[in-house]
Structure formats: C-alpha cells, structure tokens
UniProtKB/TrEMBL annotation:
Lineage: Bacteria, Bacillati, Actinomycetota, Actinomycetes, Propionibacteriales
Any Pfam family matching the protein: Big_2
InterPro entries, sorted: Big_2 (IPR003343), Invasin/intimin_cell_adhesion (IPR008964)
Gene3D superfamilies: 2.60.40.1080
Record's protein name: Ig-like domain, group 2
Keywords: Signal
Domain of life assignment: Bacteria
Low complexity: compositionally biased ranges: 349-366, 376-406
UniProt keyword annotation of Signal present: yes
UniProt domain BIG2: residue ranges: 277-347
Length: 442
C-alpha cells in the first residue's frame, strides 16, 4: 500500500501527485521558519562542463548554476548512514510511528505491518534511484541561487521538478549539512536524525506541534527508493513503491564541478552583461553573457541558438564564436529557453595587413677578451713578462671586404715565453654583412 503522510497542521506539506493518490509529499526544511539565504556564490567559470539532469526547467532565462559533486561517495555514505539509522530506530522501544498503515506504538510494530519482520529486512527495504539522484542534483543547483528553499529559481513550486524519466519524487528534504552521512544521522541541530525528540512529541506523526518530517521521511517503509546529493546543501528525494520501478541501486558517474541549467525570471534578461561589443575586421571573439540573481553573481547564460542580422559584418557560430567580416554594425540574437536576447556588435577598420618583419638592430662590438693568466712553472717562479719589439717595416696586416676594399695596419710583434711570437694590429674586425674577408701578411 502506498505511504500517506497526514498534512494536518503542517503548512509545508504539499502533494506532487493527483489528489486521488493517497500520498502527500514530505517537503520539509531542516530549520524553523522561511527560506534560509545562502552565502553569495562565487562567479561561475563559463567553460565548466554542463550537466543536464533531465529535469524540466521552468519558463524563464536559462543560466548555469555550478555544483561540485562526488555521487559515488554520496551513494556509499548515504546508504550506510540510512541503514544504520533505520536499525537503531527499529530497535528503540519508545519510538511510536504513524503512517498510511495506521498508528503503532513502536516503529518495529509499524514495520511488521509493512511486511518486515527483522531490523535487517526493514533497514534494507530501499534502493537507490538515479532518477531521484538527478532530481536532487537539480534542486541543489537551484538552492545555490535561492538559498535553502523548496521554491525553484524562477519562483515555481518544487513540484515542477518532481519527475524525471517517469519517476516521481514524493518527498524532498534539505539541510545545510554538507556531509551526507552527518545530514542523515548526525548529532547536531539541523541533522535529519536530530528530529528524534520531535517525532516522539508528535506521537510518531509526520506533522504536529514539532517539525519531524525529515526523520519521518527517512523511516517510513512506504518509501522504497531514495536519491541524495551533497552539493552546497544536502538534498534527499524519496519515492513511493509505485514510482521506484526503475531504481537500479547504482549511482550516476557524476563527479567534479558542473554547470546545471536552471531558469530564472525572464525579466532578468534586461540585466544581462555581455563580454564584447566590438571587433576588428578579420578577428574572432567569443560572445559571453552573464547575469546576477539572488545569491549568485555572474551566472553564465546558456544559449540554445545564435543568429546575426548581417553576416557581411559578423558571423556567429553555434558555440557563440563571432568572426568580424567587414566594417559595420550587426545585431546578434540569442535564444535561451525561449527568451530572446539581442546585442549590437560593431566591426571597425579594414582588413588587417600582414605583420611586418622586424628590423634587425645593429650588434654592438664585443668587448676585448682579457689576456690569459699563465700558471707558474713547477718551481713556483712567476713567468717572465713578455717582451715587445718594434715591428719590421714590412710587417702589416690587410683585410679585404667582399666589395674589394682593403684596410692595412702595421703589426706589433710581442715575443712570449718559449719563443712564441704574438702579432697584433691592436684593432678589432667586426663582420657587418654576409661575405668573405681575408687576413694576410704581405
């Protein structure tokens, strides 16, 4: 039999199913009062990959909300925490429970009505649903903009996010705890298991004088599949037996940071900021569009299609890359979830000329190399200083350039130790162009 949550006295409980279905939705916040504002989110990198959860969007401008997830880890930790919580509550002799099967003095007695005759059988009576997991990721992304709330980013009720691939989420629970196992079975205020005393005060009922809907949702054996995520907030989605037929007990492979498409009110299109409004002829540039809304800044607009009013001025590719073709002004049209944006782009100048070759700068003359320092002989006596003698009258050196001009200079002769003679003009010869030069003694 389908589980039913009485809605008496609990204003947040609403049904995602037709009234003929004897079930009501567990929509509860892990706080008392209205929506909790989130911290202002960091600007989003528009190059982040997009994760399409498959959940239908509201009407409005489509933007990307960033989430960072590790769904395999969430799956493993959530399964273990929920199983441990159910076993502990099953064995509690003082915890009453009431649901669609009536009222029982203990959760153990209520589980027996549902067909579970042991703590282990009751604790294992749920599976993981990828469809509910994707709904949870979608709602966590929307909460990154709205703050902790059951309303969606364009103002619609959460019920509009309740279905994916034929699977319906019949219950949604949220908490600001970021560790999913602590959210399910933590000790502090705000954890879902922290409603134990409230559930007892309500005599086991979902609603009553105390807020106990989160814990009731986790313990009710009428829910046979769940999907969780931890992405800024911890989010849980629960499904009744007739809506969990496609549950696979395996998580998605989602791991990393993604942009999840969400919708914000269409009138925010007037606040969109564009990355560029001019190009030079022959140049290309990516057209970006961002908008800030509620707790999020610089949300990238996700565009479904682009168009140019004059492709002789600017063309635009499906990924938003513009190419300037000729001087003038064109209007770029962008369609995002049925909302049309326009942006004027001006192209300046004539076709770009080729890049000129660099003019080589004159190379400065190298500094003369200092004379070598001679090591002393084995006896430790310093070498004799070189002696110089006057050059012979005929001792000259000539250099002939490739153009035939000749430069001659007299040679100075220096006799070094050991009879080695060093001839030098005292000048440096520098090559300034490609050619052949010969040094010779006449």
């Amino acid at each position: 039999m389908a589980s039913a949550f009485p809605r008496r006295g609990f204003s947040r409980s609403r049904s995602r199913l037709p009234s003929a279905v004897l079930a009501s939705l567990a929509i509860v916040l892990a706080c008392v009062g209205g929506p909790v504002p989130a911290a202002v989110a960091d600007p989003v990198d528009p190059q982040t990959p997009v994760l399409d959860t498959g959940v239908s969007l509201e009407d409005g401008l489509k933007v990307g909300a960033a989430v960072t997830v590790d769904q395999q880890a969430v799956h493993d930790r959530a399964q273990a925490a929920l199983r441990a919580l159910r076993i502990r509550m099953y064995n509690d002799p003082s915890l009453p429970f009431e649901g669609s099967l009536g009222h029982s003095e203990t959760l153990k007695d209520y589980a027996a009505k549902a067909g579970y005759d042991s703590a282990e059988a009751y604790a294992d009576a749920f599976t993981w649903s990828q469809e509910l997991e994707m709904i949870a990721i979608q709602r966590a992304a929307e909460n990154s903009i709205t703050g902790m709330s059951h309303d969606r980013t364009a103002g619609s009720s959460t019920f509009t996010a309740a279905q994916r691939s034929g699977t319906t989420s019949n219950g949604e629970i949220i908490t600001e705890y970021r560790d999913i196992d602590s959210a399910i079975d933590g000790a502090g205020p705000g954890s879902w298991s922290g409603e134990y005393d409230s559930l007892k005060a309500n005599d086991g009922r979902y609603s009553g004088p105390e807020v106990a809907g989160h814990l009731h949702t986790l313990l009710d054996p009428g829910y046979t599949c769940y999907g969780f995520t931890s992405a800024g907030v911890s989010m849980g989605e629960a499904g009744l037996a007739q809506t969990c037929s496609s549950a696979t007990d395996r998580p998605s492979a989602s791991s990393g940071t993604y942009l999840v498409p969400v919708a914000i009110p269409a009138d925010r299109a007037a606040d969109v900021a564009y990355g560029s409004d001019s190009l030079d002829v022959g140049r290309s540039g990516r057209l970006t569009a961002t908008v800030s809304y509620l707790n999020a800044t610089d949300l990238p607009v996700i565009v479904d299609s682009y168009g140019s009013s004059d492709e002789k001025v600017v063309t635009v590719a499906p990924d938003g890359t513009m190419r300037a073709v000729g001087p003038g002004t064109a209007t770029i049209t962008m369609v995002s979830n049925g909302v049309t944006l326009t942006h004027r782009v001006t192209v300046d100048g004539a076709s770009p000329v080729g890049t000129p070759s660099p003019t080589p700068s004159e190379t400065s003359s190298p500094a003369p190399m200092p004379p070598p320092t001679l090591a002393p002989p084995a006896g430790g006596t310093s070498p004799a200083a070189p002696s110089a003698s006057a050059p012979a009258a005929a001792d000259t050196a000539s250099a002939t350039s490739a153009k035939g001009s000749t430069l001659s200079k007299p040679l100075a002769r220096t006799v070094l130790k050991g009879g080695v003679t060093l001839l030098s003009t005292g000048l440096l010869i520098r090559g300034v162009t490609l050619g052949l030069a010969r040094l010779r003694r006449p």
